[in-house]
Specification:
Layout lengths: L10 E7 L5 H7 L23 E11 L4 E11 L4 E7 L10 H13 L4 H11 L7 H13 L1 H11 L12 H15 L3 H12 L7 H5 L1
Helix pairs in contact: 2-3, 2-4, 2-6, 5-6, 5-7
């Protein structure tokens, strides 16, 4: 009888951990950075109470307020569910090379401060020396935030149970302004919100819908 070997599919997942360390210091420390050391597998389908083993690093780009370059991302591997877990510092967003601070600033200037796209670009380039955006970038980030608005409100309800969230309205921008105010006043830093939202919901507040439903 022919023997058939069934191989388990190796899966990957990402985690965001909070750190107050700025990107330039994180990059300078390299492998000496005090990375998180999980005590159990974070994969919801596994959660075995055995620490995943270290699985090297990979490099990714990050463009932040005063830093532009490549940083190391620590990886772990769970031999029980065959999942590779990457730990991103909280100034990163999965699949975005620009830092969460820059993206949040752009959303604030346009949706809260009512700047035009050209005015927003001028302001951003005064503060962020490594910014290489055009109006198309801004339109993309605003559109993504508005598309995700209801899911962001669900996450905020879980993180801030007593918060007064805006009601659904045809004017999504008005609701977005209120949500951005809640984020700015309800959390010490945008990084705090981003990392806590990811831990609560399992995806980034700027994640595309198909990633959330996958």
């Amino acid at each position: 009888m022919e023997q058939v070997e069934y191989l388990l599919e190796v899966t990957t997942m990402q985690q965001i951990f909070y750190t107050p360390v700025p990107p330039e210091e994180y990059a300078r420390l390299g492998k000496d950075f005090p990375f998180p050391q999980p005590t159990s597998c974070p994969n919801p389908g596994c959660l075995v109470k055995v620490p995943p083993q270290k699985h090297g690093f990979y490099q990714r780009n990050i463009i932040a307020v005063t830093f532009c370059g490549r940083i190391l991302i620590r990886r772990y591997y769970c031999k029980y569910c065959r999942t590779t877990i990457s730990y991103l510092p909280s100034f990163c967003l999965p699949y975005f090379q620009y830092s969460v601070e820059i993206i949040f600033a752009a959303l604030w200037y346009i949706l809260v401060s009512h700047h035009s796209f050209s005015e927003c670009l001028k302001l951003l380039k005064e503060f962020f020396v490594y910014l290489y955006w055009n109006t198309g970038h801004l339109q993309f980030y605003v559109r993504r935030f508005l598309t995700n608005l209801n899911r962001i409100k669900v996450g905020l309800r879980q993180l801030l149970p007593r918060v007064s969230l805006p009601q659904d309205s045809p004017d999504k921008k008005e609701g977005a302004r209120k949500v951005l105010h809640i984020v700015a006043t309800g959390f010490p830093r945008i990084q705090t919100f981003s990392s806590r939202f990811y831990a609560q919901c399992g995806y980034s507040f700027m994640a595309p819908l198909h990633n959330i439903l996958a």
